Each structure stands twice: as structure tokens, then as C-alpha cells.
Amino acid sequence: xxxxxxxxxxxxxxxxxxxxxxxxxxxxxxxxxxxxxxxxxxxxxxxxxxxxxxxxxxxxxxxxxxxxxxxxxxxxxxxxxxxxxxxxxxxxxxxxxxxxxxxxxxxxxxxxxxxxxxxxxxxxxxxxxxxxxxxxxxxxxxxxxxxxxxxxxxxxxxxxxxxxxxxxxxxxxxxxxxxxxxxxxxxxxxxxxxxxxxxxxxxxxxxxxxxxxxxxxxxxxxxxxxxxxxxxxxxxxxxxxxxxxxxxxxxxxxxxxxxxxxxxxxxxxxxxxxxxxxxxxxxxxxxxxxxxxxxxxxxxxxxxxxxxxxxxxxxxxxxxxxxxxxxxxxxxxxxxxxxxxxxxxxxxxxxxxxxxxxxxxxxxxxxxxxxxxxxxxxxxxxxxxxxxxxxxxxxxxxxxxxxxxxxxxxxxxxxxxxxxxxxxxxxxxxxxxxxxxxxxxxxxxxxxxxxxxxxxxxxxxxxxxxxxxxxxxxxxxxxxxxxxxxxxxxxxxxxxxxxxxxx
Length: 503
Description:
Blueprint lengths: L3 H22 L10 H18 L1 H6 L7 H13 L6 H17 L2 H13 L5 H13 L3 H7 L1 H10 L10 H10 L10 H9 L11 H11 L3 H8 L5 H6 L1 H4 L11 H10 L2 H6 L1 H16 L9 E5 L14 H16 L5 E5 L17 H8 L11 E5 L10 H13 L6 E6 L2 E2 L4 E2 L8 E3 L6 H8 L8 H17 L3 H8 L11
Parallel strand pairs: 1-2, 1-3, 3-4, 4-7
Antiparallel strand pairs: 5-6
């Protein structure tokens, strides 16, 4: 019989896993089966519940692969309720917040600082965190041009001292608070912004998102502007404008895997077929980079991939679930032993490059096919299901197949089964699960799949809360001790995911 202490530990572990799934997948935006308001209300409740009951674990979730939306919400919640934490907790939270802010895209951080100001959070620790982040920016003049209102709000809130004179910080202060007072700026971007008001040639010297506004003001042709601005574009900006510029220097293979999958799915079928070798090669290269040291280590892998109509997502997350499935398809091919991967789409299609959202979700039938022995008569070592969990053709068959398989045919668990779900279920406060005995994890980017499989094993019920807490402690130690510069650099360029870019 479970003791009360053990029961409490299990409940805590389940709550933390539930929150981790939500923080990875949910962004408060409309999904295929739920509206934006439902998503926001569900997230509001979860954040408040976990912060009040498990504050230490709530802060520790900043070290997990949660999405930027929830990371910013956690930071705001911790800063807003600092009085509820002990001195030791505040020190740990401060380090976690600083480390997470260093990994967030700058536009997301400036938006967060605006929320901090509107919430009236102005204690000494908050101002120190904001000052340290601003001081660590590689070029505050660049930020002042590209995120002008955000820098201005942050500088006011922390009382940033901008001395008079020709110092870089003094020029930024004059640019933000005394525009037009200086005849010229020593900083090249600040001066380019000044000249761009009347000089068309200066427009191409500015960051792309700022230059677009000046180009429209000057009446520049779109094609001409894009060709001039191309050298200063980020990789993702070049990808977005590739159809217009047709520049040969767009390296698709260098793109993040899930972002590349979104780009591929946005292309018409004719272009995908015509560029098959280029697009497939880029996806495989990105998958090998994402797999890293895990390549070839998963043995025989079979996958069930959801390309039903619900994978079309919503107007705010267009084709996102299908892009995650396509990216996972290529990643799993690399993670498996060479020649030991088999991917099955719910529609029955065999051409991954030409998938589209269509039809019902016969997960049960595809799971039956995936559990069939592969070449040599051996069962798969891993079965990975990438789906939103709405098994409806017939309803509930996948869960029943997996239950019988585990109870009767594979009680020794020779085949590890995991379900990764890219869609948050607002009504259930979690991602939708196929069966109680199947470990399920939320997923937003396919690149996080190896780490999410490790988290999913805690949901299987065979490990205790002590192991989960130890895992979180390891992630926190790694997060605070090592700086993931590659991921930070990539996030620096993710401007297209941010709405209302400040300029």
C-alpha cells in the first residue's frame, strides 16, 4: 500500500510532468480543436498552480526544453512573486532567469521587459537582472535601431545612465531620448537610420525588418530592395524571401530541422517534386546535425507519423503538427541503425516529401503495421508515434492495440513505445494520450526528440519521483554550467516567429 508521503511524491511528479508537456507545446495560440482563449486560460491555471505548489520545480523547468512563450511567463511569474521565495530560492532563481534570458531571442526579452514595467515590478533584483542582460548585449546600438521601443522601455525602467559625450552608450541615449539633437552618429547603424530618412542608399545598411519600413516610404520596388538588403539578412530572413530573390547562397541544410520542414511543406507539390534531391538532402543533413552523438544508437526503429487533416494546425500554427512529424521522420531515420528504420504515415503515403494534411487518423491500424517484425523477423527496438492523439478510425483502437501488445505479446518490454504529441489539449491541461501505459511527451521541435524520450520514461510509472528530481537537478546544473552558444545564435535569428517586431 502506498504511504501518504509516497502518494504525495507521485502526485508531485505527475504534476511536474504535466506542466512540462504544456510548457513545451502550448503557446496560447489557437490549435486545430481549441481556440486561443481556451489555450490561454488553461495555461494561466497551470502556471499559477505549479508556481504556488512547487515553486522550486517551477523555476527548474527553465532548464528544460520548454518553448520561449512559457519561459518568458515563468520568468515574469518568478519576478512578480519574489516575496514568496526564500533568500536561497531567490539566488537560484536569479541564476536560472539570467541563463534563460541569455538564450531567448532578444525581441522576446524586450517584450518581457515591457510586461515587467507594466506589472510594476521594480525591485532591486529585477533591475539588476535587466541591467546585466543589457550590458551583455553585443551591440546595444543595433538593438536600439531594431528594437527601439523595447530598448527605450528597458532603459527607463532600470534607470540606465546614458552620459553626455561621444561614448557609445551616450549615443544610444541621444538616439532614444533626444532624437535629432546630434547632427551625426559615430555608430554606423545609428547614422544609417538617420540618413535613411532622406537617403535611399542608406536603407540597405539597416537591419532587414527596419529597412522594410524605409523601403516602403521611399517607394522602392520589392525585388530591388530584397537584392540590396540580402547581405544583411539573417538565414531565416533569406529563407523567407528566397522565392523572390532566388539567391544561390541560401543554405537550406544549415536551417534548423523543424524550421526547414515548415519551409518544405509551404512549397507547392510541383516545386517539391522538382527540387526533390535538394530538399531531401537538406532535410537529411539537418537531421544528422540534430541527432549528433545519438546517430545510429536507437537500434531498429519503427514510427507512426500523423498526416491526417488535423495536422494542418491552425491559422496561427499553420501545418506545425505535420512539420514536426516530417522532421521526426528524417531524424528517426538517422537515430536508427543504418537500414533499420521504417516510417508509416496514417494516410498510407510512402513519399514523405509530398505529404499533406488529409483524411482521418487511423492510428490503430498503423500501430498494428508498425509492430510487425522488420527485415530478419525481428521486432522493433523502439516504436515512436508522432500524433496529436485523436485516434478516430476507429476511435480508441491504438490504445487497445498497445495495451494488448504490452500485456500479452511483449510483457518483457523488448520494444520501447513512446508517443510524442505536438498539440496541447487545453481541456485536459496536457497533451492527449493514447493509453495509460504509453509514455507521452509534448514536443514542439523535432530536434528535442532525444531529450523528450528521456523525460517520457518518467511518465511510464516505472521510475519514482526521486529519479525525476535527480534528473531535474542534473538539467539545472548543466544549464547553469554550460552555455549552449549554437542554440543561442540560432534563436537570435528567429525573427519570423515573433509578432509585432519592434522597430
